[in-house]
Amino acid sequence: xxxxxxxxxxxxxxxxxxxxxxxxxxxxxxxxxxxxxxxxxxxxxxxxxxxxxxxxxxxxxxxxxxxxxxxxxxxxxxxxxxxxxxxxxxxxxxxxxxxxxxxxxxxxxxxxxxxxxxxxxxxxxxxxxxxxxxxxxxxxxxxxxxxxxxxxxxxxxxxxxxxxxxxxxxxxxxxxxxxxxxxxxxxxxxxxxxxxxxxxxxxxxxxxxxxxxxxxxxxxxxxxxxxxxxxxxxxxxxxxxxxxxxxxxxxxxxxxxxxxxxxxxxxx
Length: 268
What we know:
Blueprint: H1 3-31, H2 58-71, H3 82-102, H4 110-141, H5 144-171, H6 199-214, H7 218-237, H8 243-264
């Protein structure tokens, strides 16, 4: 491991640990301040063993999730088309301005880029660790809700990564540091280092969405989505991704996190 990578990991540790604590403890504090039921929560019912939220059932749930996610375009109707259409239009607009934004002299700052990269790595590390911490705390305190949140948060991250890697392989987009930030798509030389969409953004937003959907109190919402927004912005400031990369990653991650929770959770 090079000295620069070691320094980056070491400097991101305070951000990672702070993010983990905020994400893990916000739901517990929020749960004490709100008594409203979860939005769109299913009615209590006896679930078959294969459908319960457990670590053992997660692989089966992941396969079902992927099937539902990839076939979802076939279920778009006039009544539910507004969101997808808005995302396509916003992405198109973002792509047309990507080069101009990333060519700005304000972003051509090695110190800013390095600090932003370290921050984004620390934040995404916190989002990856948060479900593990929630699961562990739930197991220790016999809190089924926290345990479920940990499992579904991890499931949302895995689902989003599966989707993102396919999109990366298909898009084959150059990174901002290549060819004066022109952001060309379908460049075979990119290999597995495609810029579109952002892995950091989709991980952060899928985890944030899952946690915030399980605990809809204002503290959890502000903490989870605030840190996710910071992760996405940091990837642009680090010149690691174009605005359209983080836009799509954030939106897709948010939708996947909400889907996973609504599909699998119990009512608490």
